[in-house]
Amino acid sequence: MKKRRLTDLNPLLTSSYHYELPSELIATHPIHPRDHARLLVYNRADKSITHARFDALESFLPENCGIIFNDTKVIKARLYGHKESGGAVELLINRPHDAHTINVYIKGRVKIDTLILFEGDLSARVISLSDDGSREVNFYLNHTLIRFEELLPILEQVGHIPLPPYLGREDNSEDEREYQSVFAHHEGAVAAPTASLHFTDELFDAVCSRHPHAFVTLHVGSGTFKPVEAEIITDHPMHSEYFDISIAAQELLHSDTPLLSVGTTSTRTVEFHARTQEVSGEANLFLHPHNPPLRINHLLTNFHLPQSTLLMLVASFVGIEETHRMYQEAIKEHYRFFSYGDAMLIL
Question: Would you say residue 85 has pLDDT above 50?
Answer without folding.
Answer: yes
